[in-house]
Amino acid sequence: MEKKSKITQEIFASEEEKILVWENIQSSFEKNFGLEIYSSWLKSISLLKEYNDYLVLGVPTRFFRDWIVSRYLDKILSLLKVFKNSINRVEFKITDDNKISQIDPYRDDSLNKVTEIKDSILNYNRLNPNLNFDSFVNGSSNEVALSSSKKVCEQISRYNPLYIYGGVGLGKTHLLNAIGIELEKKTNVMFISAERFMYHFIKSIKKNDMVNFKDFFRKSSVFIIDDIQFIRGKEGLQEEFFHTFNSLIDKSSQIIISADRAPMKLDRVQERIKSRLAGGLVVDIDTPDLDLKVKIIKKRLEDIQNQFKETSDISDEVINFMASETKTNIRELIGVLNRVITFSKIHKKVLTIADCKNILKDVFNQAKIITVDKIQNTVANFFNIPLAEMLSQRRSRPLARPRQIAMYLAKKLTTRSLPEIGRRFANRDHTTVIHAVKTITRLSEKDDEMKNNIDQLRSLLLAE
Ligand code: ADP
Ligand code: MG
Fold it and tell me: What is the pTM of this model?
C-alpha cells in the first residue's frame, strides 16, 4: 500500500487540472501573432486536455501541426506560461486527419507501424518523421554519437545497449527518433520517454493490469527509451525497468537509451541498473562549436525553403551573429532562428545585426525574465522531487541540495535581493540564502557533477 501511494505521488506532476480559459488564450494569440497568422493557423487549435505541467492541444492535420511547431511553438509556449507558469510543454493531437489525408503532403503512413497502446497517452508519443538522420547535422561534438546510431541501425544488437548522453537540447531525442524511423522499416520499434514509461506503469498498477504492461514492453525488437535520468529516486519504477531491460536483452532486442549524464553519474539509481546501462556502448554529445551551429542554421533555412516554398533573406552576417551569441544549446539556437525568421517575414525586410539584437534582446538578456517561481519549478523537475518538498523544512540531502541550488540560481539569474529570495523559499532567513550561495559556489568549483548540473539548469532556464 505504501509503495502505491509513493508511486502515485511521483506522477503528481502530471495530474489533470482545469484552470485555463481557452478563449482568453486565443485572444492573446491574436494580439501577439497578429490577425493574419492567428486566423490562418492558430484559431484552429483547441484545448483537449490540461495537466498542471503540460497541455494536449488539438490541431486539424499533421500539416497544421508541423507548420505550427516549426514556426510558432516557442512563442505559443511563452504566451501559455503567462496564463499558467507551470506549463513546460505542449503536445499536439491530430483531430481530423482522415478527412484530409489525401491533400496532406506530410502524411506518413509508416507512423502507424509504431507500436502503441490504444487509449493511452502513449498515443501522442509517436516518432516524429522530421527528426531523421537526414535532418541531423554532423559536427565534431556529435559525430561519434551519430555514427554509433547509424551502426546500430545497420547491425542490430552489435552494441547493446547503446547509451547516448549529453546536456539539454543537444540532439539526443533527435538521434533516438532517427534510429526509430530507420529501424521501424525493418522491425517493430517501441519508442518511449522514461516519463511515459512510468505513466503507463502507474496506470497498469492502478488498473491491476501489470501482465499486459509487461507483455507489451517486453515484446518489442527495438526498445528506445528517452531521458532515462527520470527514473532517479523512483524505486518501483527502477525495479520494473530492470526486469524489462533484462528480458529484452535475453531475447536479443536492441535497446537504445538517452540520458542527461553518464551511466555512473546517475545518482539514486540502483548499482545493478547503472552497470547494465554502461554495459554496451556509451557515447556522449558535447556542446556544439560555431561551425556546427552555422551549419544547423543554414540547413534549417534550406529545409524551410524546400518545404514551404518560401525564401528567407537572412544574411551570412546575421547567421554568424545568431550562432556566436547562442552559447548553450541547439534548441535555443533554433528558437532564436525562428524568431528572426518570423520577424523578417512580418516586416518583410532583410535584417541587419542591429535588428537582430533588438529582436533577441530578451533572449540574450535573460536576467529580466527569469522568475524565482520558474527557477524553483525547473530545479524541482530536474531533480525529480515535488516542489512542495523542495520548499519544505526537511533537511535531508536529496531535498536540501536542490533547494540550495535553486537559491543559488535565484541569486545569480534574477535581480531579487537575498531577503526576497529567502521569503520565496518558505520564509527562510537571508543568511540561509547566503549560506546556500556559498555552498553551491564552492561545490561547483571542485565537483564536476555539481558544475554539470548547474550548467544544465542554466541552459534549461535560458533556453526558452
Ligand atoms: P535533447 O533531446 O538532447 O534535449 P533534442 O534532440 O530535442 O535535444 O534537440 C533539440 C533541437 O535541436 C531539436 O529541434 C533538434 O532537431 C535540434 N538539433 C539538435 N542537434 C541537431 C543537429 N545536429 N542537427 C540538426 N538539428 C539538431
Ligand atoms: Mg530530449
Answer: 0.61
